[in-house]
Specification:
The chain has 4 domains: about 180 residues, no CATH class; about 35 residues, Laminin (Ribbon), CATH 2.10.25.10; about 40 residues, Laminin (Ribbon); about 120 residues, Cadherins (Immunoglobulin-like, Sandwich), CATH 2.60.40. The chain contains 3 helices and 33 strands. Strand 9 and strand 10 form a beta hairpin. The protein is rod-shaped, with a radius of gyration of 71 Å. The protein binds calcium ion (4 copies). The site of one calcium ion has 10 residues, from strand 11 and strand 12. One of its GO terms (biological process) is myelination of posterior lateral line nerve axons. Belongs to the fibulin family.
């Protein structure tokens, strides 16, 4: 078996022993009285001295080999060469031959230098010089095919990166680097505080080796995970009515007649009726988004939407009066007047006047004529108010006239005010509340002292007082 000495480490300078040399190796200094292999302790000399294996080992070299003792070991040399003068550095020698250890030779090649326990320092053993057939520069290793391959220090864990670092293999070497999110400070990989460097547009949370951005309410994170963009909240229709998107928020508005609730999104109806009691002449009804005025029966809502206007049932024919009757309209209603019937001794002289003839003794002390008139009056009309006028139609020389309320004024709401010799006005002096009918007999007394005449005429005025002040 050929000895392949390539790869052995020689820990001291090996002297060239030509190619035949076979021998060993590192010196492991002995301690105390223990000597390394190949030496034995000599008590007298008190030191380790070389063992002559050629003499102590039977068949140290076999076959045609000749044993040559060496300091700390021995050589087996072909006998044919043994007689030749030993010339170091002579190249053309055959390869060394290794004696099969199974034939009694120690299995291990052992150091041949005496140990520190008093070995003979200075006596250098002869070592074979190892000539490497190929060599690689640092960081490469020789492959079987003889090429130099890069050593992956990271893979083989032969790097010196510290635990915070990451090993990156390079050709012929390696580098220690920090992972993303870390940078090298003082030989250590330290987290980058990205928030300090404005990585995020709005909100930033630093984390070891990383960071995360977030956005203020009303914004969403863009796909770049750093910038924020406004949310168009209106897309989700958050408002009851109108929605306006704004940068970072949104605004709701409401249709006319509504107002925004405290939540900023709900539209609630305005109660216009609560604004003013004068909004409607009669009654206000709130409706979603608006309001309406209503009027009592007998009225309709005027064009202005708030005033109440009397239905003229007599004009519109929307009445129940018979053809014999006369329809009389008043505020909030109407009435059907029956045909005039004069009570005897009165006789009818027109459709609204009865007369008691002077020639008829029964008419003595009675009013000469009774004229029937009707009028309407709004309830709550302000006072005083002139509401009716009467005037003498015929004049007698030397006569004068007295105007007075003969009956019907029980509540003292009216009085007569004479406006001239021949005329007077009926005045409403107190508020009057309807609905009701007041029948007043307004008397005009004619006095003529020249002919010693005294007579009277009556206007029987029926006043329809409305329920409402309109
Ligand atoms: Ca970080
Ligand atoms: Ca928005
Ligand atoms: Ca409303
Ligand atoms: Ca009416």
């Amino acid at each position: 078996m050929l000895l392949d000495i390539r790869g052995f480490r020689f820990c001291s300078p090996a002297r060239m022993l030509a190619a035949l040399v076979f021998i060993l190796l590192c010196v492991q200094p002995g301690h105390g009285q223990t000597c390394t292999e190949g030496f034995a302790y000599d008590r007298r000399a008190r030191q380790c001295i070389d063992v002559d294996e050629c003499r102590t080992l039977p068949d140290a070299c076999r076959g045609d080999m000749h044993c040559v003792n060496q300091n700390g070991g021995y050589l087996c040399l072909p006998r044919s060469l043994y007689n030749q003068p030993y010339r170091p550095d002579t190249p053309a020698l055959p390869n060394p031959v290794y004696q099969d250890p199974s034939a009694g030779f120690p299995d291990t090649f052992l150091p041949a230098v005496p140990g520190g326990g008093g070995g003979r320092g200075g006596v250098e053993p002869s070592y074979p010089r190892v000539r490497s057939t190929a060599q690689c520069i640092l960081g490469y290793t020789l492959a079987e095919d003889g090429t130099c391959n890069d050593i992956d220090e990271c893979e083989t864990n032969s790097h010196h990166c510290n635990p915070t670092q990451v090993c990156i293999n390079t050709s012929g070497g390696y580098t220690c680097s920090c992972t993303e999110g870390y940078w090298l400070i003082g030989g250590q990989c330290q987290d980058i505080d990205e928030c300090r460097y404005g990585y995020c547009q709005q909100l930033c949370a630093n984390a070891p080796g990383s960071y995360s951005c977030s956005c203020n309410p009303g914004f969403i994170l863009n796909p770049d995970s750093r910038t924020c963009q406004d949310v168009d909240e209106c897309e989700d229709e958050p408002c009851s009515h109108g929605c306006f998107n704004t940068y970072g928020s949104f605004m709701c508005n409401c249709d006319e007649g509504f107002e925004l609730a405290a939540d900023g999104t709900t539209c609630i109806d305005l109660d216009e009726c609560s604004f003013s009691e004068f909004l409607c002449q009669h009654r206000c009804v709130n409706t979603p988004g608006s309001f309406s005025c209503i009027c009592p029966p007998g009225y309709y809502v005027f064009e202005d939407g708030r005033s109440c206007e009397d239905f003229n049932e007599c004009d519109t024919g929307n009445n129940t009066c018979t053809t014999a009757q006369v329809c009389f309209n008043f505020q909030g209603g109407y009435t059907c007047l029956d045909p005039l019937q004069c009570r005897p001794p009165y006789v009818e002289v027109s459709d609204n006047q009865c007369m008691c003839s002077a020639e008829n003794p029964a008419c003595r002390d009675k009013a000469f004529t009774i004229l029937y008139r009707h009028m309407d009056l709004s309830s709550g009309r302000s006072v005083p108010a002139d509401i009716f006028q009467m005037q003498a139609t015929t004049r007698y020389p030397g006569a004068f006239y007295i105007f007075q309320i003969k009956s019907g004024n029980d509540g003292r709401e009216f009085y007569m005010r004479q406006t001239s010799n021949v005329s007077a006005t009926l005045v409403l002096s107190r508020p009057i509340k309807g609905p009701k009918q007041v029948v007043l007999d307004l008397e005009m007394v004619t006095v003529n002292n020249v002919i010693n005449f005294r007579g009277s005429s009556i206007i029987r005025l029926t006043i329809f007082v409305s329920e409402h002040p309109f």
